Amino acid sequence: MAGIGTAGTGTTDVRQYLRGLAVFAGDLPDFDPDAAPDRPEALFLDWLTGAVEAGVREPHAMTLSTVGADGTPSARALLLKNVDRHGWQFAANAASPKGRDLAANPVAALSFYWPQQARQIRVTGPVAPEPAGNSAADFLARPPGSRAEAVAGRQSQPLHDVRELERATELALERVEREPGLVVPEWTLYTVRAERVEFWQADKQRRHTRLCYLREGAEGEGWTRGRLWP
Ligand SMILES: Cc1cc2nc3c(=O)[nH]c(=O)nc-3n(C[C@H](O)[C@H](O)[C@H](O)COP(=O)(O)O)c2cc1C
């Protein structure tokens, strides 16, 4: 198909261009919600391994949505660090904008979309920082370049001169090599204790299948689940 026209009607061209793009193309996997496991992390891991096998690139990249102190929402991509019965984990600098959002409003939404399978997963719940030892272990498991980036710091602040970044990264890398046990104190492993987890499977006839897990019970260790209208 032709690209977006730049002359003439402008907006209409973009509208038509977008309308012409394929959606939910190719073979889609089956999803039988009646056969789903009792716990959402079990189904998540089942879908994640399915995504890897289907060749989804970076299936562990997700969108983290947060809310700032003034109520402004923010979303950005992040890597998933772990999933178990305690929740979904990611790591970030607590001094970054997302870290400040989480300090002001310790709740988050995570969303995954795997286009090859037309699958979406949405996770929401309160967020808590892990103890410093767990965050330090996560930091030290990162490759030297990633640690150096965090040591250089100032994530999301305006960059006025790219040479400043090059110099700071070089110095940070030297420091990481000199001090292999160095940990950035703001580096934080966060856990989203999911309250709601929704699995969405596209259907070419638009009868999409949605299965929603909700946490329940006095101890909050149980889950109910049910289907949603598409
Ligand atoms: C695929 C992908 C993975 C990313 N993983 C992380 C991550 O694990 N931690 C992180 O702090 N930023 C990660 N980033 C960068 C963030 O999207 C974001 O630009 C950065 O954290 C600053 O966000 P903030 O200004 O909202 O705090 C990733 C970006 C992409 C595209």
Automatic annotation (TrEMBL):
<dbReference type="GO" id="GO:0010181">
    <property type="term" value="F:FMN binding"/>
</dbReference>
<feature type="binding site">
    <location>
        <begin position="155"/>
        <end position="156"/>
    </location>
    <ligand>
        <name>FMN</name>
    </ligand>
</feature>
<feature type="binding site">
    <location>
        <position position="210"/>
    </location>
    <ligand>
        <name>FMN</name>
    </ligand>
</feature>
<dbReference type="InterPro" id="IPR011576">
    <property type="entry name" value="Pyridox_Oxase_N"/>
</dbReference>
<dbReference type="InterPro" id="IPR019576">
    <property type="entry name" value="Pyridoxamine_oxidase_dimer_C"/>
</dbReference>
<comment type="similarity">
    <text>Belongs to the pyridoxamine 5'-phosphate oxidase family.</text>
</comment>
<feature type="binding site">
    <location>
        <position position="200"/>
    </location>
    <ligand>
        <name>FMN</name>
    </ligand>
</feature>
<feature type="binding site">
    <location>
        <position position="120"/>
    </location>
    <ligand>
        <name>FMN</name>
    </ligand>
</feature>
<feature type="binding site">
    <location>
        <position position="98"/>
    </location>
    <ligand>
        <name>FMN</name>
    </ligand>
</feature>
<keyword id="KW-0560">Oxidoreductase</keyword>
<dbReference type="Pfam" id="PF10590">
    <property type="entry name" value="PNP_phzG_C"/>
</dbReference>
<feature type="domain" description="Pyridoxine 5'-phosphate oxidase dimerisation C-terminal">
    <location>
        <begin position="187"/>
        <end position="230"/>
    </location>
</feature>
<feature type="binding site">
    <location>
        <begin position="76"/>
        <end position="81"/>
    </location>
    <ligand>
        <name>FMN</name>
    </ligand>
</feature>
<keyword id="KW-0285">Flavoprotein</keyword>
<keyword id="KW-0288">FMN</keyword>
<dbReference type="GO" id="GO:0004733">
    <property type="term" value="F:pyridoxamine phosphate oxidase activity"/>
</dbReference>
<dbReference type="GO" id="GO:0008615">
    <property type="term" value="P:pyridoxine biosynthetic process"/>
</dbReference>
<feature type="domain" description="Pyridoxamine 5'-phosphate oxidase N-terminal">
    <location>
        <begin position="48"/>
        <end position="170"/>
    </location>
</feature>
<dbReference type="InterPro" id="IPR000659">
    <property type="entry name" value="Pyridox_Oxase"/>
</dbReference>
<dbReference type="Pfam" id="PF01243">
    <property type="entry name" value="PNPOx_N"/>
</dbReference>
<protein>
    <submittedName>
        <fullName>Pyridoxamine 5'-phosphate oxidase</fullName>
    </submittedName>
</protein>
<dbReference type="InterPro" id="IPR012349">
    <property type="entry name" value="Split_barrel_FMN-bd"/>
</dbReference>
